Amino acid sequence: MNNISKEDYLSVIFKFQNRNGEIRPKAIAQKLQVTQAAVTDMLKKLAIDNYILYEKYKCIRLTPSGEEFAINMVRRHRIWEVFLQKVVGMPWDKVHEEAHKLEHSSSDDLINRLEVLLRYPEFDPHGDPIPSKEGKIPKIKKYLPLSDLKEGESGTVVRVNDFDEQFLNYLTELGISLYEIILVKEKRNFDNSLMIQIKGKQWNISQKLAENIFIEIKKVKGA
Questions:
Q1: Which is the most buried residue in 21, 26, 46, 93, by most CB within 10 A?
Q2: Distance CA 153, CA 222 (A)
């Protein structure tokens, strides 16, 4: 990603912070695909601007002003993703990069108008919640990564990670989309890979793939 801005950093910190509201600099570097030195330089600037709490060798936390800024950027991005998919007709593996370009050049007024046009969507095409203009985040259903399901368990896809276009494109090839039902037919102990069933078709997938698909478990009658 070229010309990574403070908005990008704050969005990543918000999206990937743990339950305690913290994230390690190394994780930021991995998500943005930049060096740790570059991350350190930006974190120092964000701390000076009072967007984050930063101490060397410690986890990063957003300040109230940093969180407000990040939520607004995430809101812009996800509303643009919904618009690009529903109105423009772009597939879900293409909307992320386009939305990233548009979020930086949009006014809050435009985003608010898009939200009305789209009838106040609560989730983006990948299942991530869209903050309201007041900063409230829709309640997320309880879910587990597909990799945690046992043989014979099934559930509905409620979210997928949107970090990689190739990953999303591959999910499309497998027939995996939001609200699709997946049944775990077999789970292999030696490498934690899975055989899954979607619409009557069976596929072998890796543990890494399964860890990035999130499922709301449903009870099933037989396999």
A1: 46
A2: 9
